[in-house]
Design brief:
The chain is α+β, with helices and mostly antiparallel strands. The chain has helices at residues 5-15, 61-65, 79-91, 153-162, 176-183, 187-208, 221-228, 301-304, 308-315, 335-343, 377-383, 398-407, 454-458, 526-532, 538-541, 553-558, 562-583, 596-603; strands at 42-43, 47-49, 93-99, 102-107, 118-124, 134-139, 144-150, 168-174, 212-215, 246-254, 319-320, 323-324, 426-432, 441-446, 516-522, 544-551, 587-591, 610-619, 628-630. The chain is built from 18 helices and 19 strands. Strands 2, 5, 6, 7, 8, 9, 10 and 11 form an eight-stranded antiparallel β-sheet that branches. The chain has a six-stranded antiparallel β-sheet with strand order 15-14-13-16-18-17, sandwiched between helices. The chain has a three-stranded antiparallel β-sheet with strand order 4-3-19. Helix 3 (79-91) runs antiparallel to helix 6 (187-208), helix 5 crosses helix 6 and helix 6 (187-208) crosses helix 17 (562-583).
């Protein structure tokens, strides 16, 4: 009997695990002769140059954390400049790095190994002055759109009538070869993480220009392939099957959302929710969701009727242009990747959107403990980098640490959680190294359904379950923390060491009682973080490291396409941690190499109910002074 799609996904995940004595299968060396071109182009497609604007984005990190949208000069830009600013902030170049004769580009969206398998598409109806209606591919090096499918006026108008006023579609695809070239069979994991990174960046960039981003999860992969034109064999005839694009997801971007300060479902509660303890023996809930799929504002009702057939019908009279470029001269075969990608496609349209539901009524987020929270969000998006090494000499303040964890909780009206259609299905195992006023050790942050057993019930008996006293206001002498000096001239942590809990007081005006954070084990966790992250020092040298643990088997068995979506959620969390690190004056780094089962053994997890999908670390970066940095778009003559 042939294996089912869920069995294929679970087998792929098992066979691509790293182990201390055996890593997942890969080439074992860097075949520079077949290194893929990082930029997809479509020869023969008209190029629409996107302008650069000097108008400042005034949306601060703090305002974005409250769910506000940009209402300043950027929101008044002409459509080409406004769209160009959004794409630049989420998928565009942020710098060029150079070492001797080698030169490479950095982008706003994080990517495993800086290989960038993610491609972006925009579907524009009539009404966006200065831009053609149709399907367009974003070329980040040129900061331009390539017109893949042009629409006649009647079809463009019909498409506009389906969308909210001023709305358009944004989609993502993945080229699996770009990651497989370096990482072999584990590449599908990294492509999915990068999709999550880009998804989060799109929502954050949309907020910077005053737009709402709403997920359209009901579309199948076949629907998306038809929409983006990635299913057109004639347009990809000159490229190998490895270089075809796999459709991922679709968003509707539009000038929606409730006015700043208005209450929206799932967030902004004035009541401080408490963290309820999990109840052993209760039935676990898998079909959980938090979504921005029911936003307030004019035109939101149209989203419910945005059926794939109606949208695709408007493309029937369109004209397709362009042929994809070849990325590599030769390819190494990893058949298990293609088999798993095929088995995890979304093949059934959602009959109806599941109701949006947050894990709890979360308070409005207060990121003020972070040093750079008044910095414009677009500046944080542009300056985001992955640290190559860390050497932490200062402890992170407890309020800044808790504010960072708070940012990972899904608030449906706050970017990037507006763009989520499922979850939360991922909890965070924290290796705390240097956080002032918090005891070193292993901690667990529950992001999902509090009150069900979840991960807690599956933990080994040797682990504790102790709530830090600092989280509860008025706890007295057990409190811990450290205040942030608002007059400090530079960004960074405070304190000198990871002092024991209880040596400092948490600002009582900043309550984190809603954080479901528990200490599992006390003591130094540096060696454990390093050992489980493929013996990489960077996991031990920062202020804290994270292992993202997903509800795995039940999700994949219920819908194999959730295999990819679990990684997307981890990628979104990773992008949040990147930006929070920048706002704290630190730097983050995603870690894709870890010993899967070693992490499970630490937690006493058995079977596949829970699986680790991503590691991350935050700390003070050590800059490589050998590298030169160049502006992102100095090569363009405009």
């Amino acid at each position: 009997m042939a294996p089912t799609p869920s069995e294929i996904a679970r087998a792929y995940h098992a066979t691509t695990k790293h182990h201390p004595q055996r890593y997942a299968r890969a080439l074992g060396y860097m075949d520079w002769d077949t290194q893929p071109d990082p930029f997809r182009r479509f020869a023969g497609a008209a190029e629409v140059a996107l302008p650069f604007s000097d108008e400042a984005c005034t949306l601060t990190h703090a305002a974005a954390s409250r769910g506000e949208l940009e209402a300043g000069p950027v929101a008044d830009l002409a459509p080409p400049a406004r769209l160009g600013r959004m794409l630049e902030l989420c998928l565009g170049l942020t710098a060029w790095k150079q070492f001797e004769a080698n030169r490479w580009a950095l982008r706003a969206n994080p990517s495993s190994g800086n290989l960038h398998p993610t491609e972006g598409y925009v579907v524009l109806p009539a009404g966006h002055a200065g831009l053609p209606a149709g399907v367009l591919h974003y070329a980040p090096r040129e900061h331009a759109l390539e017109l893949r499918c042009s629409l006649p006026a009647a079809a463009a108008t019909a498409l506009a009538e389906l969308l909210p006023p001023g709305g358009f579609l944004v989609g993502l695809t993945s080229i699996l070869w770009r990651e497989a070239w370096k990482y072999g069979e584990r590449a599908l994991r990294y492509c999915c993480l990068d999709t999550g990174h880009a998804l989060a960046a799109i929502d954050q960039a949309a907020a910077c220009v005053g737009w709402q981003a709403t997920p359209l999860p009901g579309w199948t992969d076949a629907d998306l392939g038809a929409l983006f034109g990635t299913d057109r064999a004639e347009d990809f005839a000159e490229v190998d099957a490895w270089e075809r694009e796999h459709p991922d997801l679709l968003l509707c971007v539009w000038p929606g959302g409730a006015p700043a300060g208005d209450a929206q479902p799932g967030a902004g509660s004035t009541k401080e929710p408490s963290c309820a303890s999990a109840v052993p023996g209760a039935e676990p809930r898998v079909d959980r969701q938090v979504s921005g799929s029911n936003p307030a504002g004019p035109g939101s009702a149209r989203l419910a009727g945005l059926a794939p057939d109606a949208v695709l019908a408007t493309l029937a009279s369109g004209t397709w242009h362009g042929h994809a470029n070849s990325l590599s001269s030769e390819h190494h075969e990893w058949d298990v990747i293609h088999a798993t990608a095929a088995s995890t496609k979304r093949v059934a349209r959602a009959e109806a959107a599941r109701p949006a539901r947050a894990p709890a009524a979360l308070p409005v987020r207060d990121p003020s403990p972070l040093r750079c929270t008044d910095q414009p969000l677009d500046q944080l998006l542009r300056q985001r980098r992955s640290a190559q090494s860390m050497r932490t000499t200062e402890a992170l303040s407890l309020p800044a640490f808790l504010a960072t964890l708070d940012a990972t909780l899904p608030r449906p009206d706050v970017a990037p959680w507006r763009a989520q259609s499922e979850g939360p299905d991922v909890d965070l195992l924290l290796f705390v190294h240097q956080v002032e006023g918090l005891e070193r050790g292993l901690y667990l942050l529950e992001r999902g359904d509090v009150g069900t057993p979840g991960l807690r019930a599956a933990l080994g008996p040797s682990l504790g379950w102790e709530r830090p006293a600092a989280l509860d206001p008025g706890a007295g002498e057990g409190q811990a923390g450290g205040s942030v000096d608002p007059s400090a001239p530079t960004c960074g942590g405070t304190g000198t060491d990871g002092s024991p809990e209880g040596t400092a007081k948490l600002d009582p005006s900043k309550s984190y009682a809603h954080l479901c954070l528990h200490r599992l084990r006390s003591g130094h966790a540096e060696s454990l973080a390093r050992a489980t992250s493929c013996n990489q020092d960077i996991a031990a040298d920062g202020n804290f490291a994270v292992a993202m643990i997903a509800r795995f088997a039940a999700n994949v068995d219920q819908d194999p396409s959730r295999y990819r979506r679990l990684f997307w959620e981890c990628g979104v969390i990773g992008q949040v941690l990147y930006i929070e690190a920048e706002a704290a004056g630190l730097r983050g780094t995603g870690i894709g190499c870890y010993f899967d089962d070693a992490v499970h053994q630490v937690l006493g997890l058995r079977g596949e109910e829970f699986q680790v999908l991503y590691h991350f670390t935050t700390g003070q970066p050590v800059e490589d002074e050998r590298l030169q940095t160049h502006p992102p778009y100095a090569h363009l003559e405009r």
